[in-house]
Write the structure tokens for this entry.
Amino acid sequence: MTPSLPLPTDASPGAVCVETLKKRADFLAAARARRAPMPGFLLQGRDRADGGGVRVGFTCSKKVGNAVTRNRAKRRLRALAREVMPQHGRPGWDYVLIGRADATVSHPFDAMRSDLIRALDKVHK
């Protein structure tokens, strides 16, 4: 069973449950799909066409920084997904959020939130 990100307290009744991607094959499949580069991160999205729930993966390479910086960047990406994906993610889709060097950690969180909503619209077109 894949662990789910908890829904925010202000989630709408129609919000979907968000699961975390764990398998390498799922990350590789998303890498071959649609992309939406944003200043603070890169979003990759793939339609699984199985009607399941929303699944999100997070990754940061060593270019982002040392272990402390990478973990902070991933924490910010997880918090971002926890807020935005239940309302704007589509069931049956896999998303991967990739951290950017010197941007994911320092970019304003409100700007990243609006960027993620814009990136989801771009990927869904």
Notes: The first strand starts at residue 4 and ends at 5. Residues 80 and 104 are 11 Å apart (CA to CA).
